[in-house]
Hints:
The protein is of the alpha+beta class and about 425 residues long. The protein has three domains: about 10-175, Alpha-Beta Plaits (2-Layer Sandwich), CATH 3.30.70.270; about 185-235, DNA polymerase, domain 1 (Orthogonal Bundle), CATH 1.10.150.20; about 255-400, Dna Ligase, domain 1 (2-Layer Sandwich), CATH 3.30.1490. The protein contains 17 helices and 13 strands. The protein has helices spanning about 20-30, 55-60, 70-75, 85-100, 125, 130-145, 155-165, 180, 195-205, 210-215, 220-225, 225-235, 270-290, 320-335, 355-365, 370-390, 395-400, and strands at about 15-20, 40, 50-55, 80-85, 105-110, 115-120, 150-155, 170-175, 255-265, 290-300, 305-320, 340-355, 415-420. Strand 2 and strand 3 form a beta hairpin. Helix 4 (about 85-100) packs antiparallel against helix 6, helix 11 (about 220-225) packs across helix 12 and helix 13 (about 270-290) packs antiparallel against helix 14. The longest helix is centred in the middle third of the chain and has 21 residues, at about 270-290. Magnesium ion binds near residues 18, 19 and 113.
Amino acid sequence: MRRQVSCAGSETTIIHIDMDAFFAAVEQWAHPELRGKPVIVCGDPDGRGVVSTASYEARAFGVRSAMPVKEARRLCPQGVFLSSHLSDYAAISERLLEVYRRYTPVVEPFSIDEAFLDVTGCERLHGDAVAIARSIKEEVRRHLGLTCSVGVAPNKFLAKMASDMHKPDGLTVIQAEDVPRVIWPLPVGKLYGVGEKTAGALASMGITTAKALAEVPVEMLTARFGVMGRVLHDVANGIDSSPVDPGVWERPKSVGRETTLAEDSADEEALVRHLLSLSEQVARRLRKHDLVARTVTLKLRYSDFTTLTRSHTLDDFTCYDEDLYRAAVELFRSNWTRSRKVRLIGVTASTLAPSHDYTCQLALFEGPLSHERRRSLASALDRVRDRFGEGAVTRASLIDIAPRRRPGDGYGRDKSRKGG
Ligand code: TTP
Ligand code: MG
């Protein structure tokens, strides 16, 4: 999110809407017998994946998003564990946007279940922002059977903070003058956009609350955090001038690359190397558009033109070469009929979401390489490839799992390009 200078004194009114326990609530609406029960939606209820979301009934047992399914089963053995139906949730998400657009054309979808609405100047038609918020909540409940939590505020940051304050089914108003009372007592890590790492860095400077952060001279913050310092200063003071951008969602539904081989091939090593190159290109494209993807699709066309596509849903969203590559290779190894010559090979990433939604969450899964380090490494590689071409660098970690490229192994030409 872009944040610049204060918009204090402006008349802007923003609404942020976040559906409650979205995936689980959709399942409960579709299956009335699940209402009131602890419902846990996950990629693979029997596998080693993680929880996508849990109904509030299940949250009472301590079940949370991103928790391993195994752990959720331990906490809530009586829970109803379901696999996710992403296309259903996406369809509901579209219907929600249609509702919002009846109140204002300035609607920015922010994730599958969140949106910002700029309702400045809509009062004459629909009443004040709180009346609009109530009316939207009522319409969503009546037509889609879902509850949502709504924040009303003079800017996006405060509206986002507000919607989270009284979940589920909340309606919270934050005015500019409320900032010292409602924002300042919060730990810095609770401020939207302040990740674990930044909160840790602030703590090492003795800054643990929003109030303490608000009192630090902005120059000191920019000296320590660069441009992020200004953002920190602004959010601690409840300042955000980023506009609600209805165009931000005009993004591809999928990002794919495929290549027709210079010669039909049944050489496993060579085919896997193509998958590496294609995965790198797709991941790079995702990053360029600030997207993350959760589905990886492999496409193989054999010499006789029969075509096979197989998809795999990842446990989590990603924009990294290695995640796409691993999934693509796994699909390839389990679906390719050995010895059948391949004419065309392709990798597509779909189930896309804007990356800012998942940045904080990914930090929770920090492995040997933290999200921030992966991200900065990936963008450094992107810069090298921008300058010297796609083949200029390959991640050492990927070379370990991919056969090395040998001189003379020409990559095929990119014949068709899909998506962004
Ligand atoms: P959230 O809005 O973060 O969560 P939620 O709607 O389930 O619950 P609430 O807003 O009431 O706290 O995310 C929206 C959906 O995105 C969620 O229903 C499932 C999906 N999701 C994941 O798949 N993995 C995750 O780690 C998170 C946080 C969400
Ligand atoms: Mg939600």
